[in-house]
Write a structure and sequence with these properties.
The chain has helices at 17-32, 43-52, 58-71, 75-80, 83-89, 96-113, 129-136, 144-154, 164-173, 182-192, 198-211, 230-238. By secondary structure, the protein is mostly helical. α2 crosses α8 and α7 crosses α8. Bound molecules: iron/sulfur cluster (SF4). Iron/sulfur cluster is lined by residues 169, 172-173, 212-213, 218-220, 223, 225-226, 229, 231-232.
Length: 242
């Protein structure tokens, strides 16, 4: 990644939030590029894959998802199977009993909602983003972030998922207030980040959070965003470095 090479110097004048978003977006694209975005249109597959991805690596959850689909080629079969058989199929993803129970509760909740075509979620494609997300969050164990991930990654809808990295980096930058919850940050950031930028911004903020803006000891000295970062300047001020 490129680094911001300037000396600490004086803090630049504050930007309006919309201008700051644009500046951050451009710096992150310079650093990390524009990631590919290939939604496959499979909202339910995306939802189940997101459940499987909790607390494990992408490799393990991908393996668990492939095994699940191989063992249970239809969602009806996965819903009606003994829970231990489902857990056995997804064992490589970790927390197999917990995730099997969560998957079956989700599939049963969808069946209760629409007994005729429970697993046809095409209506999410045309529903307004807020209403689509609100509907998804009524499913067991589906929060704002998971619902937004399904809309963004599976359906290509411009939702802006706020995970722990996005939440931390945007708070430090001052794009959201210090006491705004991750759930509340969805609406704030969707109000600031233009729809066409949301996928790239989401992915690049996560990369930045993992590689530079760590939860403990952020690497501000090699951060491309530090010139405009509220946290950086507050720390400079506290350290007497200005
Ligand atoms: S300057 Fe530091 S706190 Fe601010 S975004 Fe960069 S790494 Fe994070």
């Amino acid at each position: 990644m490129t680094t911001w090479g300037g000396a600490a110097g004086e803090r630049p004048a504050e930007m309006e939030p919309e201008t700051l978003v644009e500046w951050v977006y451009e710096r992150l694209v310079e650093a990390y590029g524009v990631p590919p975005w290939k939604p496959d249109g499979d909202a339910l597959g995306g939802l189940i894959a997101t459940i499987l991805s909790q607390h494990t690596s992408d490799i393990n959850s991908d393996r668990a998802y492939a095994s699940l689909r191989e063992r249970f080629p239809t969602w009806e079969a996965a819903r009606d199977a003994p829970e231990e058989d489902l857990a056995d199929a997804i064992r490589s993803g970790g927390l197999a009993r917990v995730k099997a129970e969560r998957i079956q509760r989700t599939l049963r909740a969808l069946t209760e909602r629409d007994p005729v075509a429970p697993f046809d979620l095409r209506w999410l494609d045309t529903e307004n983003i807020e209403r689509a997300r609100a509907q998804l969050t009524t499913l067991p164990g589906v929060g704002m972030k998971t619902a937004s991930c399904v809309l963004l990654f599976s359906l290509g809808r411009p939702a802006f998922p706020v995970d722990t990295h996005v939440w931390r980096v945007t708070r430090r930058l001052g794009l959201i207030g210090p006491t705004v919850s991750a759930d509340a940050a969805h609406a704030t950031l969707e109000g600031l980040v233009p729809p066409d930028w949301r996928h790239t911004m989401h992915i690049n903020l996560i990369r930045h959070g993992r590689q530079v803006c760590h939860a403990q000891r952020p690497a501000c000295d090699r951060c491309t965003l530090r010139a405009r970062c509220a946290y950086y300047w507050a720390r400079q001020s506290a350290d007497g470095g200005m």
